[in-house]
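Hey,
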Amino acid sequence: MSCNDERWTYAFLALALLPAVLVANVLWVVPVESLTADRSAMAARDFTSMWAAGRMVAEGHLAALFERASFNAELRAMFGAGFVNQVWSYPPPGLLLAVPVSVLPLLPGLVAWTAGTLALLWLALRGGGLSRRLSAAVLCSPAVADNALTGQNGALTGSLLIGGLLLAGRHPALAGALLGGLIIKPQFGLLVPVCLAASRNWRAFWWAALSAGAIAVLSGWLFGFGAWVDFFTHTQPALTAMMREPWEGLPAQRIFASPLMAARSLGASLDVATAVQAVAALLCAVVAWRAWRQPNADPVLRAALTAPLVLIAAPWVHTYDMAPLAAAIAILYCAAPRPYVALLGFAWFWPGVAVLLPMPIAIEVASIAGVAWVAWLRMWAPRDQTGGPAGSDRLARSPPSAARPRSSAPP
């Protein structure tokens, strides 16, 4: 299937969304007998946790967020005894999102949150130079659908990451501010200093540091700096303990998509799995440094390479965090060598399947690495007379403008 086979492409995109549609039907439509918790709260459980966290702060129960038993007791008091166990895993800057969305009732808040984060992702993709067609495809990807099913924040973090990577060369201050916003999920910012330092983009580097620092201080000022103490003394150890638990194939373990959990799923000890994650993160840092060190590298292809590297380097990453992967695949698809199209198609497809059926984590991680490999090949491919990668589909991007370097012509 080539990029020009539009009928097959659209048929594949529709097929890839079927698992998410089926799960949405189960969550929201199919009757459930003897349900001992609010149906809407259960269906939107990830957004529900954020919404409830905002309510807890407003009611003076901030300390309950950072202790898992207390947090779940509050959730069950709000939504019923059968509400599933959740964990508030975010540092205090996450409350800057939770408190505003909790002003609305639960369902209107979910609609506003989902629409708002998708709009931000759209703006990040379009502002970075992707065409309307590709941007729409990313918003309709299984990865973004998985994120939207339960009100997760993958579209938001994806917009911050992709927007920052795409805009780093042309608008360093804005790019740095976006990348600094990743402090709400700091594991996705591990490679940011590497990329910006390698490219000597010190303006973006310091804007990222300023943005992250300002958000951290603002959250401490609004919610008390003791919230940071509680996060590091209670939440962080609890998250570490969750990752150290023996592999039992539980749903809470299968939603991970990191090398660490892939190794655990294959029977590796915690020490071996931790070493695998460390080596993977180091390799990602080396590749990112090499890519961002090249002054004439195509910025969009470089972003398509960096996005999957960021996902691999993060030890705490889930299937619903794959919006950056979808963006990378959309960028690469039309210019990928034919043998790699099936790999890109699988990487596009599996985040949707993972919401319905258990997927081997090792295969998920391998596919993410495969997308990075395809991006690496495209970055170093011979360039045509126009300055773009040979064989690229120029319709996949917005028309060039005076503000966009002529050397940038990715798919």
